[in-house]
């Protein structure tokens, strides 16, 4: 993903530009924002980059999309907007940018330029149909494992982002107002999506070994009218822990006794440091009750912020067709080619090694500078380190001190709707200068030391 002169990713530059437009809309009363195509042409960036910035603002509740009409500033009081802007850490900080191999991104853009020069599909409508069909076919083939666990292009439904996909999917399955069980801590995008769709969310906590507390899970299934269960496919983020095959089988055995949809979170499996194992939670269940949620962003980066779901329910296809998500057809074709030709898997192997090396360095420095103040385990995937503090952190002070540093901190309670994990932090370091990381950790250590009562410091 390209960076601007000031070191930002392209979508961050677009995001900041849109923030200014939103501020002007608050003053002038004009709520309509530029279209994807107009803004891409104005800022000379790709449609996918603009879509990523708009999706982030939509996640934060600052803009709303109206099908076939465009994007609009959400109506709110001016003082509320000012209060939101004065928070030490905006919700945008919860969207952790996913790193992407520069080689894979170059391959994507080259493929897109090559396709744009072809004249086989001159009509935009035909091009859109071809691009979508190719990408759905590629994803169906990627997820097919056997004659029993097979998917077709008709089972794959694409959307512009995770939030929009969840709202469409849950509406199609008539789950609005239903009760959902979620493994906690949970991806913020999923929690927010379930909340926006009007679901009642119950969280299953961790046990002493940081795995899913199966006793609590079993009790909740037995006594609550659960219609949707959200579980990681393999990699559980933000903790970065892999779900073992034994755990998968135990979870599947409990789900087999209670009729409910399984929404398997496969958004992050590509972020494993080792190649993901063959077994997923869905492998132990009947396919007709399984929904597989995935994203192209984990593998390709923010130039492909699109989400998809694999589902065999007939009503879902109809609802997605009615929603009419507009995804750039050339980008879809280029992504399909990357998967079909094996370029994605070819680039993922070195990218995993790079992520693991960066995480090992982060863990070493955290142990060196914060060792006595935090508890953590080296994660097995992801791009952030989940740590538990011996005492809650004064977040506002920490955000103020670390502002502008290479280290991003996200409060643990943001990964729970029920206020859990007050003593946890997610530490995000995208790499770069090791000395800058050390400086940021020393600042964080100083903030933590300020909170220790004098009698304990002696």
Automatic annotation (TrEMBL):
<dbReference type="InterPro" id="IPR051446">
    <property type="entry name" value="HTH_trans_reg/aminotransferase"/>
</dbReference>
<dbReference type="InterPro" id="IPR004839">
    <property type="entry name" value="Aminotransferase_I/II_large"/>
</dbReference>
<dbReference type="InterPro" id="IPR036388">
    <property type="entry name" value="WH-like_DNA-bd_sf"/>
</dbReference>
<keyword id="KW-0663">Pyridoxal phosphate</keyword>
<dbReference type="InterPro" id="IPR015424">
    <property type="entry name" value="PyrdxlP-dep_Trfase"/>
</dbReference>
<dbReference type="InterPro" id="IPR015422">
    <property type="entry name" value="PyrdxlP-dep_Trfase_small"/>
</dbReference>
<dbReference type="GO" id="GO:0008483">
    <property type="term" value="F:transaminase activity"/>
</dbReference>
<dbReference type="InterPro" id="IPR015421">
    <property type="entry name" value="PyrdxlP-dep_Trfase_major"/>
</dbReference>
<dbReference type="Pfam" id="PF00155">
    <property type="entry name" value="Aminotran_1_2"/>
</dbReference>
<dbReference type="Pfam" id="PF00392">
    <property type="entry name" value="GntR"/>
</dbReference>
<protein>
    <submittedName>
        <fullName>PLP-dependent aminotransferase family protein</fullName>
    </submittedName>
</protein>
<comment type="similarity">
    <text>In the C-terminal section; belongs to the class-I pyridoxal-phosphate-dependent aminotransferase family.</text>
</comment>
<keyword id="KW-0805">Transcription regulation</keyword>
<keyword id="KW-0032">Aminotransferase</keyword>
<keyword id="KW-0808">Transferase</keyword>
<keyword id="KW-0804">Transcription</keyword>
<keyword id="KW-0238">DNA-binding</keyword>
<feature type="domain" description="HTH gntR-type">
    <location>
        <begin position="8"/>
        <end position="76"/>
    </location>
</feature>
<dbReference type="InterPro" id="IPR000524">
    <property type="entry name" value="Tscrpt_reg_HTH_GntR"/>
</dbReference>
<dbReference type="InterPro" id="IPR036390">
    <property type="entry name" value="WH_DNA-bd_sf"/>
</dbReference>
């Amino acid at each position: 993903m390209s960076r601007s002169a000031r070191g930002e990713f392209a979508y961050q530059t677009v995001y900041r530009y849109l923030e200014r437009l939103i501020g002007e809309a608050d003053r002038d009363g004009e709520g309509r924002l530029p279209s994807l195509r107009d803004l891409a042409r104005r800022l000379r960036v790709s449609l996918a980059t603009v879509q990523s910035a708009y999706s982030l603002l939509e996640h934060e509740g600052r803009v709303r999309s109206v099908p076939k009409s465009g994007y609009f500033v959400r109506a709110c009081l001016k003082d509320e907007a000012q209060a939101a802007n004065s928070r030490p850490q905006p919700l945008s900080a919860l969207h952790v940018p996913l790193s992407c191999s520069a080689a894979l991104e170059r391959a994507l853009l080259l493929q897109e330029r090559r396709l744009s020069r072809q004249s086989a599909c001159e009509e935009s409508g035909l091009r859109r149909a071809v691009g979508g069909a190719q990408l759905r076919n590629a994803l169906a083939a990627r997820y097919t494992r056997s004659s029993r666990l097979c998917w077709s292009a008709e089972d794959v439904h694409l959307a512009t982002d995770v939030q929009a996909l969840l709202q469409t999917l849950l509406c199609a399955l008539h789950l609005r107002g239903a009760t959902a069980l979620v493994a906690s801590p949970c991806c913020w995008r999923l929690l927010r999506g379930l909340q926006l769709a009007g679901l009642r969310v119950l969280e299953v906590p961790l046990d002493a070994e940081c795995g899913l507390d199966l006793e609590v899970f079993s009790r909740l299934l037995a006594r609550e009218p659960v219609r949707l269960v959200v579980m990681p496919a393999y990699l559980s983020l933000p903790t970065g822990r892999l779900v073992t095959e034994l755990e998968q089988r135990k979870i599947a055995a409990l789900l087999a006794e209670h009729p409910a949809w399984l929404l398997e979170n496969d958004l992050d499996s590509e972020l494993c440091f080792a190649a993901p194992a063959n077994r997923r939670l869905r492998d132990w269940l009947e396919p007709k009750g399984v929904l597989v949620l995935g994203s192209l962003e984990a593998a390709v980066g923010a130039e492909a912020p699109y989400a998809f779901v694999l589902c065999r329910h007939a009503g879902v296809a109809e609802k997605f067709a009615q929603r009419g998500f507009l995804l750039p057809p050339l980008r879809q074709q280029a992504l399909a080619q990357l998967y079909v030709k094996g370029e994605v898997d070819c680039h993922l192997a070195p990218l995993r090694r790079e992520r693991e090396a960066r995480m090992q360095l982060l863990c070493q420095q955290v142990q060196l500078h914060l060792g006595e103040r935090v508890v953590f385990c080296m994660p097995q995937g992801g791009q952030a380190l989940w740590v538990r503090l011996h005492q809650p952190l004064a977040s506002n002070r920490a955000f103020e001190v670390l502002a502008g540093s290479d280290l991003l901190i996200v409060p643990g309670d943001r990964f729970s709707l029920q206020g859990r994990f007050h003593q946890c932090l997610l530490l995000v370091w995208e790499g770069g200068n090791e000395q800058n990381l050390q400086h940021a950790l020393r600042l964080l250590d100083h903030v933590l030391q300020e909170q220790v009562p004098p009698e304990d410091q002696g």
